[in-house]
Design brief:
- This protein is mainly alpha-helical.
- It has ten helices and two strands, in the order H-H-H-H-H-H-H-E-E-H-H-H.
- A two-stranded antiparallel sheet has the order 1-2.
- The longest helix is centred in the C-terminal third of the chain and has 29 residues.
- The protein is globular.
Length: about 280
């Protein structure tokens, strides 16, 4: 129970920080996402510090990821010409070429881990930052016909859907969980908790659908809730598989009751690319 209290308090403070930054100012939110991305990428690369086969330089990998992320965000903010975004692809390949001079035993494995960090952590945080800067009428709750909701950025709604799934999957799993979902990878996850998380995510999606764009985006938010719930589940399982293969319990110890940055963002990292893809498809249709 003590762990639950610590987890709840940490989660509450973390939620206030993240949502507060999103509501306060786009630039503050961008800096926050960039900081989380930096902590996440360092945390990821350091997971392999004592690995017998993988020998990466976490400083080199972090530098390249930050450089690519910085170019992309600077272009979005029009600090530099948008054409510079096309320069990010060659930088990733230059990162791979550094293995030519490092003379390590498994260069291909090293490159794979470096690339994985860039795409698994850097890319979702970049998409999250760009999504937060998107200013479209469909991205805000309608305040003309209701006194219940205030204007809410689509990024906050995405994060709330992810957290709703995580929270209720955890609580219902603890209270009612009996049948294991994927015992080989994550012994504590149950079907009862999974179904509970999906159910409450869909319910929140219904609420968003009713109060967004005069209800015209109802189907969009229901599908969003289902996609995000599924991604949250698989993101969590993927993180568990990775930690199990590396023989570690948590990716870090920064957040009491939760673990590291990757433990807190595992569901969101998987959800963001699918959410963005679905949003583009919906807007196209």
């Amino acid at each position: 129970m003590n762990n639950l209290i610590v987890r709840t308090l940490t989660g509450a403070v973390f939620a206030l920080l993240v949502l507060g930054a999103i509501f306060l100012d786009d630039r503050i939110a961008s800096l926050m996402f960039g900081a989380f991305m930096l902590m996440g990428i360092i945390e990821f690369y350091k997971l392999f510090e004592d690995h017998k086969e993988v020998e990466i330089d976490w400083r080199l990998g972090t530098f390249f990821v930050i450089l690519v992320y910085g170019i992309g965000i600077s272009a979005i903010y029009q600090i530099i010409p948008t054409v510079f975004i096309y320069c990010t692809a060659p930088l990733i390949f230059i990162l791979a070429l550094t293995e030519l001079w490092r003379r390590k035993k498994n260069p291909i494995l090293n490159v794979a881990v470096l690339f994985m960090g860039a795409f698994y952590i850097g890319y979702p945080f970049y998409l999250l930052t760009v999504t937060n800067l998107t200013d479209s009428p469909t991205n805000w709750t309608d305040i003309e016909n209701t006194d219940v909701f205030f204007r809410m950025p689509i990024t906050a709604m995405l994060i709330l859907l992810v957290w709703t799934n995580d929270t209720f999957a955890y609580l219902i799993g603890r209270l009612l969980g009996k049948k294991k979902l994927f015992e080989r990878i994550s012994p504590n996850k149950t079907w009862e908790g999974t179904i509970g998380g999906i159910t409450f995510s869909v319910l929140l999606g219904v609420v968003f659908g009713l109060y967004t764009n005069n209800g015209n985006d109802f189907i969009y938010w229901i599908v969003c809730a289902l996609i995000i719930a599924a991604c949250a589940i698989f993101g969590d399982l993927f993180q568990s598989m990775m930690k199990r293969s590396l023989n570690i319990k948590d990716s870090g110890s920064l957040l009491p009751g939760h673990g590291g940055i990757l433990d807190r963002f595992d569901a969101l990292l998987f959800a963001v690319p699918f959410f963005v893809a679905w949003t583009w498809i919906y807007n196209y249709l």
